[in-house]
Amino acid sequence: MKVSSMCCPALAALALIGLPAMASAQDMQTGSVTGLPVPRYVSLKTDRVNLREGPSKEHRTRWVYQRAGLPMEVTAEFEIWRRVRDADGTEGWVLNSLLSGRRTALVTPWSKKKDETIPMRNAAKEEAVVVAKLQPGVVASVSSCVDAWCRISVADIRGFIRQERLWGVYPNEKVD
Description:
- The chain has 176 residues and is mainly beta.
- Helices cover 3% and strands 43% of the residues.
- The strands form five sheets. Strands 9-8-7-4-10 form a five-stranded antiparallel sheet, with no helix packed on it.
- Strand 14 (139-146) and strand 15 (149-154) form a beta hairpin.
- The N and C termini lie far apart (37 Å).
- The model is unreliable at 1-26 (pLDDT under 50).
C-alpha cells in the first residue's frame, strides 16, 4: 500500500501527452447515478481516503490520500462509488461520501523546475500586482473561472491565476 500527502506531484508525462479537451455542452455525458457531468472535478472531503482497485470495500486499497481538499477528477459512477483520477494520473474507486463538490486545484503540479513560483495577481490580467508567489503543488480553493483566469484563495490570500496553471479546472471551463 502506498501512502501519499500529494504535496508536490510530478506530471511531466501528462504534460507531454496532454489532457483531453473538455467536450462541448451537447457532447457532455452524465453520471448514471447522480446525473452530474462525467468527467467532473471534485475534492477530497477528509484527511484519509482509500483509493481502491474496484467499487467495493472488498477490493484492495491501492493508495491512501492524507490531505483533505485535494482535487480529483470523477471519471465514472457505480452505486455509492466514484472512479477518480488524481493529478498524477492514478485511477481507482472512492466512496462518494468521502468526496466534496467544493472546487479546488493544484498549482502547476507538472512543473519540475527547482524554485519555480507562480504569480497570484490582484486582478485577472498579466499586468496586475502580484499578491503572492505560489509553489507548484499548492492546493488552492477555486471561487470562479472566466476568460482563462481563475479567482482562487490559498489560506487567507485571494487573487487570480491563469487557468492553464491549474489542475482541477478544465481549459476554458466557466466556474461560478
